[in-house]
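Q: Entry one of two.
A:
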Amino acid sequence: MRFSNIPHMQRQKLAILERVRHDVGRFTNPVFNAFLIAATVYFPCFAKLMIFSTSGTLDPLNVLLALSAIAIVLMTPAFALAAAVEVYFARRIANASGALEKSEFA
């Protein structure tokens, strides 16, 4: 039996992973929120443009549509990185908690 396989050490690893995920979440959550706000602004403006648009008109919603589209395009790499980090930590925590359950019942 390895020293790192005892339940106490696995609980410590799980606690550390959860704390790191929480700390990283302080940086990823604003990215998710900003992306969600930009997408929430973009989709209704785009739907209004496609349904009620007439040629040659300059509507303030068209400006809002352009700004939100630029924000979405510029934030896509940060969103992808934040999502990848969250998935990574979710898998590591799931593996650590699964290993902890196996060692406690063994």
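Q: Entry two of two.
A:
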Amino acid sequence: MNKRTVRLGLNLISAGIVAITLSTFFNSDVTQLLSLTISGQRRFIVFGLFCGGLCSGLGIMIALAGALNSRADSRDIRLLRSMLVLIVAILLFFTLFFRSINSPQQPPLRPGETIII
């Protein structure tokens, strides 16, 4: 196993998951930060999903190629940190996903509406 190539693949998978998480759950925060319009927000979401899928798919292929490649000189390469980052990114994504399903969504106020307490 070529650990350097596997580590690169794991890092690409983590980057893909982070891009998908940013584009799906934090898109309003990012668009406010960048002062994007509604069409810019849509483009950001599509771009984030595209880049996340591309990075993750490429990372899977690279990690698989590194796992199948036999090389003996990569003994000093550690994969623990990359694995932990990947696990944390996956756990964060699923935590946010389940919270978004279970939290009630309130419709935004229309112009002229008041809040009744």
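A: Comment on entry two: Residues 3-101 form one domain. The chain is about 75% helix and 0% strand.
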